[in-house]
Amino acid sequence: IGLIPDSGGSWFIHRLLGFARAFDWMTTNKRLTAAEAEAWGLVVEVVEADRLSTHVAEVARTFATLPTRAIGMTKRLFDHVYDATLEEQLELEAELQQAATETADFAEGVQAFLEKREPRFSGS
User: Fold this and answer.
1) Packing angle, helices 52-64 and 68-80, rounded to 10
2) Which of 52, 67, 82, 124 is spaced 20 to 30 Å from 7 by Cα?
3) Among positive and negative, which fits the CA dihedral 20, 25, 28, 34?
């Protein structure tokens, strides 16, 4: 329609896809298939519509068994990386790693490893 990408589209898509793919996609208005979106890294996986609810429940159950505080800290790292220098990112990693070692989930993870069993994370 003769407009340009907006709402941060050029910023986000460029970072996700790289210059060549982002420019091509944004200038040709090509519609991506689900398989292409997965291959390009825009989505993690593609699930058939009739399996979606079941799959979402499975993913939720998986995440519920993981060390949720560490996952939250990892998300913080990835949110921060776009605006950070390498030095700033390393500093945040060190800060959050220290915080992670002080959680009950870290202690449980180490104990489970030593006992060769699956960990039972509590989110604390």
Assistant:
1) 100
2) 52
3) positive
Residue 29: predicted pLDDT: 85
The string of DSSP letters for 75-100 reads HHHHHHTTT--HHHHHHHHHHHHHHH
Q: What is the pTM of this model?
A: 0.73
Q: What does the DSSP 8-state code read for residue 49?
A: G
Whole-angstrom Cα distance, residue 107 to residue 39? 37
Q: How far from 12 is each of 6, 21, 42, 76, CA to CA, in Å?
A: 10, 12, 11, 17
pLDDT tens by residue, 58-81? 999 999 999 999 999 999 999 998
Q: Which residues, other chains included, contact 15 with Cβ-Cβ below 8 Å and sequence gap of 6+?
A: 82
Q: Kindly tell me the burial class for residue 36, based on how many C-beta atoms sit within 10 Å of its own C-beta (0-12, 13-18, 19 or more).
A: middle
